[in-house]
Every structure is written in C-alpha cells, then in structure tokens.
Amino acid sequence: MRLNFPHLAVLAVATLALSACSAPPEDGAIHDPYESFNRVSHTFNKGTDRVLIRPLSQAYGTTVPDPVRRSLSHVAAHLDEPKSAVNHVLQGDVESAGHSVFRFLVNSTVGVAGLFDPAAASFGLERRQTGFGDTLTAWGAREGAYLELPLAGPSTERDFAGLIVDVATNPFSYLSSDVAVLNTASTIPAALNVRYEFSDTVDSVLHDSADSYAQLRLSYIQNRKFKLNQQDPDNAGHDPFEDLYDEIYEELYDEF
User: Fold this and answer.
1) In the list 33, 53, 73, 154, which could disulfide-bond 220, CB 3.0-4.6 Å?
2) Closest-CA residue to 239 (of 136, 89, 148, 131)
3) What is the value of pTM for the model shown?
4) In Å, what is the CA distance from 34 to each residue of 119, 156, 253?
5) Residues 6+ apart with CB under 8 A from 253
6) Alpha-carbon gap, residue 56 to 49, rounded angstroms
7) 4 in a structural domain
8) Residues 22, 31: Cα–Cα separation, whole Å
9) CB of 150 within 8 A of CB of 159?
C-alpha cells in the first residue's frame, strides 16, 4: 500500500506519541494524569449520548427490523477485515491473517458484499477483530495514560496512537471516494445498533452511576486487559490493557 507524505507524517507523529507514553504508578492504580481534561471530555460525550446518540439509536432500533439492522452491521464489520488481516501479519499471526482474508473473500461474494456472514455461519470462520493498538501491545509498547476523547470515547495513549495509524492506513481510503464514503457511512448504523442493543448496560454506566467517569474508566481498562490476555494467554503478565466498552465503545465510537 502506497502512503503519501501526510500519511507518513501521521505515522511518525503516532510513533513519537507512543515513545512518550507515560509510565503507570507503581501501586497498580489506573494511570490517569489527564483526569481534568478527561472529565470535561466525558461530560461532553455523556451529553452527546443523552441528547443525540441514545434517541437516534432508540428510533433506529424500534423502526428498522432486526434482520436489516444485522445486515447493515455486517457491512461495517466486513469492511474492517482488511485492517485486521494486516495487523495479524504485523503481530506474527499468519494463521489469523489468512483466516481474516478468507472471511473477507467469502463474505464479499457469497455474503453479497458483506450484507451477510456465511463465513461464520457456514464455514466456522468467526470474526477475529484486531487493530494497530493490539499490534503495538504485541510489540511490547506500554499502555500509557488513560484518555477519554471527544466522541471517540475511552482509550489509552497506546490505543490512541494505534487508532491514528488505523485511520491513516485504511486501504479503502485509497480505492475511490465512493468506497471511502461507504466505509465511513457503514459505521453509523452499526454504532446505533450496538447502542440500541446494549441500551440498558450503557445507561447504567453513563446515566445511572454515582460517578459515571470512574465507572466507565474502570470498565474500559478491565476489558482491555481481558481482551488482550485472551489474544495472548501465554503472556498474561505482559502490559496488555478493554469489558463492556470493548464491545460497546469500540463499536459505538471507535468505528467512527
């Protein structure tokens, strides 16, 4: 894949940001030196969810039939497969890379451009989603400090660097403007569907918690650890760091 100068510059900035990832406290507490900024961002995200995302997701979930919602969500997951395949290679997992490539080929053809998922239903090829944040973890990068980004939701310094690289190297942005628009547009119904399906859980964290910021932060960090330890069970003591919000925020916000 050919990268132009702006994309190379973004990669360089991400690498520099990664090298500056701050060290966590020795007592094992969550590393959150940017808490004052994070709480402002959290208040914005919480308000956006209350006045925009939650009402839209409820309207979407109650008016669009479940099979249609599932098919539209499949498209977003389908267009994410090339990114996963590339990152599996970078992580040294050739088998999973081939798995993702075959999923993409099956769902592009038999699955009608990703509207359906016969790769999982008929071939046993479940989705193995990964990104450059996971790749950085596999390379030994530290997690860094906790971040909550406006609209993008919970993250860490390492995962934010990974997100920048994922966006800059998205192969669909190099094909045509129509494909790039489709790739971006497909994430909207997928995110609304996840927000609708997990409505009770999201509401309990964002709108019913005594301290929704602390609850969201804990949920995200614990789930990040769990996910990365699942990916690398023989290295559970490594610095892997995503619960509830890998499932929700990764779909609800990181898909954007």
Assistant:
1) 154
2) 136
3) 0.79
4) 42, 11, 20
5) 151, 152, 153, 191
6) 9
7) no
8) 9
9) no
Count of domains for the chain? 1
Q: Residue 36 has which token pair?
A: 């004052």
* Burial of 172: CB neighbours in 10 Å, binned 0-12, 13-18, 19+: middle
Structural domain of 82: 36-252
Q: What is the DSSP string of the chain?
A: ----HHHHHHHHHHHHHHHTPPPPPTT-----TTHHHHHHHHHHHHHHIIIIIHHHHHHHHHHS-HHHHHHHHHHHHHHTHHHHHHHHHHTT-HHHHHHHHHHHHHHHHTTTTTTS-HHHHHH--------HHHHHHHTT-----EEEETTTEEEEHHHHHHHHHHHHT-GGGGT-HHHHHHHHHHHHHHHHHHHHHTHHHHHHHHTSSTTHHHHHHHHHHHHHHHHHHHHSGGGTTS----HHHHHTHHHHTTT-
Rounded to an integer, what distance in angstroms lies between the CA atom of residue 241 and that of residue 155? 10
Token pair, residue 163, equals 């997100």
pLDDT tens track, the chain, 256 positions: 445 545 545 554 555 555 556 666 666 688 999 999 999 999 999 999 999 999 999 999 999 999 999 999 999 999 999 999 999 999 999 999 999 999 999 999 999 999 999 999 999 999 999 999 999 999 989 899 999 999 999 999 999 999 999 888 887 777 767 777 777 888 899 999 999 999 999 999 999 999 999 999 999 999 998 888 766 545 433 333 333 444 444 544 444 3
In-domain check, residue 159: yes
Q: Which amino acid is at 14?
A: A
217 part of a folded domain: yes
